[in-house]
Design brief:
Blueprint lengths: L2 H13 L5 E17 L2 E19 L2 E7 L4 H17 L23 H4 L3 H17 L3 E17 L4 E16 L4 E8 L7 H14 L9 E7 L1 H13 L3 H5 L20 E3 L21 E5 L2 E2 L6 H7 L10 E2 L7 H5 L4 E15 L4 E14 L2 E5 L3 E5 L1 H4 L3 E4 L3 E3 L5 E3 L2 E11 L3
Parallel strand pairs: 7-12, 11-18
Antiparallel strand pairs: 1-2, 1-4, 2-3, 4-5, 5-6, 7-19, 8-9, 9-10, 12-13, 13-14, 13-15, 15-19, 16-19, 17-18
Length: about 425
């Protein structure tokens, strides 16, 4: 769906509208994936989809509808359903009319190589990546996925925006009889992927984690790899809502402008990031911009919706487009060398809230937990459950390394971190 086609579809939908305010979104995308298990490709799928969504408002009565039928009749029916839903809904007291024309940043997030990647090239890359795993007598599972998306927005107040983007991701897990190792490689362009390196890392972790030992629960000095960091920073980034904070219903209440992390920590959103870019627009088509959330450890901004920004006389920030923490030039090995006794964490899974008012969460390590002794990794450790707060973690960062992209917990470019006193509460059964 090129820009001309997208504009024609949005104009068609607006021409059928009778509501006070109408917002239209259209999109088309192709997702192609090769999935593998037990060292063999088991599925190769290609999915194409397109659709149109309409939000209609009569005053503050708001309704929405969507369709995959992009004929004139299909679009007209979709607009009609949205308007019928709006008329029958209760007023949304926080609804604001959509904005007027916006200036959108240009985001270069399209790579023809991602779109045109041949099936056999993808299969060959997987086969070559799995060869060392098979030679080691181990098993691997994972996927090599690519996305290409075109989308546009428009409204009855004169907004129109068009954006296209690509994304590629290779993920691999290697299994032994009693351990596993995991790695990923992601980017918006194909030349940002390093499939062999991800495969080697997953294999190395699985072999190093064999015959894991158990350690006692307690507070440990920990080196978090970027995927593990992302599991924690995602909780920070997605909970910083200004309205709930101002109403005293959040752990962020009273913290805007306060020191919440170490001085070395700056967390921001960069919509045009060269590796993991996001959309040029946010809530209701408001133009996206670079936003600093935490600067030098100080909480500079909370997430202000258009409604709450108007209530408080602030600029609307929208939700984080992505999360970026720059880190330093240090490697993960440099961080490990600073630890006399501690743990190296590859990633987390099954993260859940324990006490949202304290941002206390729990979860488990997965696919590579290692003991650090005397500045080096000595052996694998049986997975453990943690109970801790990311608010506590960002105050105990001792050092950070080179930032790397990860999509395990949303779009993030974050560094490995050396953190003191991270709390593990129990072991797990595997």
């Amino acid at each position: 769906m090129n820009e001309e086609r997208a504009r024609a579809l949005t104009e068609k939908a607006l021409s059928f509208a009778s509501a006070d305010h109408t917002e239209v979104s259209v999109g088309a995308g192709v997702q192609t994936a090769a999935r593998f298990a037990n060292n063999s490709i088991i599925q190769h799928v290609r999915n194409r989809d397109q659709g149109l969504g309409v939000t209609a408002a009569f005053g503050q009565r708001v309704g929405g509808a969507s369709t995959n039928d992009l004929s004139d009749e299909g679009i007209r029916a979709c607009v009609g359903r949205a308007e019928a839903a709006a008329r029958s809904s209760e007023p949304n007291t926080e609804y604001l009319p959509p904005p007027g024309p916006q200036e959108y940043m240009s985001i270069d997030a399209w790579d023809d190589d991602v779109v045109e990647l041949p099936h056999d090239t993808r299969a060959t890359a997987i086969s070559e990546a799995l060869a060392p795993v098979e030679a080691a007598g181990l098993r691997a599972a994972g996927s090599y996925t690519t996305h290409a998306n075109q989308r546009a927005i428009a409204n009855s107040n004169g907004v129109f925006g068009y954006n296209r983007s690509t994304h590629a991701c290779y993920v691999q897990t290697v299994l032994t009889e009693n351990s596993s190792g995991w790695a990923e490689s992601v980017g918006s362009a194909l030349d940002q992927l390093d499939v062999p390196a991800a495969s080697r890392m997953a294999l190395q972790k699985a072999e190093a984690a064999k015959d894991p030992t158990e350690v006692k629960p307690g507070a440990y000095t920990v080196v978090f790899e970027p995927a593990a960091v992302a599991g924690l920073t995602s909780i920070v980034g997605w909970t910083m809502d200004a309205k709930t904070a101002d109403e005293g219903r959040s752990c962020w209440t009273g913290l805007e402008g306060a020191q919440v992390g170490v001085p070395a920590l700056t967390m921001r959103s960069v919509p045009a990031h060269p590796i993991l870019p996001s959309s040029p627009w946010g809530e209701q088509g408001i133009a996206a911009s670079d936003t600093i959330w935490i600067e030098d450890g100080v909480l500079r901004n909370l997430i202000y919706s258009r409604f709450w920004a108007q209530e408080k006389g602030r600029e609307a920030t929208g939700r984080p487009a992505n999360l970026v923490i720059d880190g330093s030039d240090a490697t993960t090995e440099d961080l490990i060398a600073q630890v006399d006794y501690g743990l190296l964490v590859t990633r987390f899974w099954y993260i859940r809230f324990v006490d949202p008012m304290k941002l206390l969460i729990t979860g488990m390590t997965r696919d590579g937990l290692f003991l650090i002794e005397g500045g080096r990794v000595t052996r694998g450790v049986r997975n453990m459950r943690f109970n801790d707060s990311p608010l506590s973690v960002i105050k105990k960062i001792r050092a950070m390394g080179q930032a790397r992209p990860t999509t395990l917990h949303g779009l993030q470019v974050v560094p490995p971190m050396l953190v003191d006193e991270f709390h593990f509460t129990s072991g797990t059964s595997f």
